[in-house]
Amino acid sequence: MTTITLVQGDITEQSVDAVVNAANSSLLGGGGVDGAIHRRGGPAILEDCRRLRAGHYGKGLPTGRAVATTAGDLDARWVIHTVGPVYSASEDRSALLASCYRESLRVADELGARTVAFPAVSAGVYGWPMDDAARIAVRTVREAETDAEEVRFVLFDEEAYDAFARQVR
User: Fold this and answer.
1) pTM for this one?
2) What does the DSSP 8-state code read for residue 86?
3) Euclidean distance between CA atoms 142 and 26, whole angstroms
4) What is the CATH number for 155?
5) Distance between CA atoms of residues 48 and 9, nearest Å
6) Range of the domain at 54
7) How many angstroms from the chain centroid is the CA of residue 49?
8) pLDDT digits over 140-159, tens only?
9) What is the C-alpha separation between 82 and 160, in angstroms, rounded?
10) How many domains does the chain have?
11) Which are the contacts of 1, defined by CB distance < 8 A and separation ≥ 6?
12) 3-class DSSP state of 146
């Protein structure tokens, strides 16, 4: 059984097997969690991402998918990059958001990762309402068949932490 834990803080400071990055499809870094992971993890992550772009992911990583790289200087073995959907009030993209969590856990299982730290995927610049993002994330992790022993949601601020705490209860 997978234990779900919540932490308010910086995902780049977590000591886990795998840190999940809310990446953009280019895999070449960006703002928010993505930029922080690339900055703190150092150039090794970007080098791995460039190799992925030169190979199988020449057009970028599709929304809802996940792929792993080294964790560079982070206190983790791997970074699992997943591309969340941009929120739309007129189109239901919740299946794509759920896919980010399922696919990240699938990749974690392939790697043998037992502890996985997730941010609130799509709830930053991609505009997903925090309460709904938390509902989808927690439900998907609870329903996932995974070998992960701990899934840690690392939330940047009190609002995000509270939204996830309401779902975990």
Assistant:
1) 0.97
2) P
3) 29
4) 3.40.220.10
5) 26
6) 3-168
7) 15
8) 999 999 999 999 999 999 99
9) 19
10) 1
11) none
12) coil
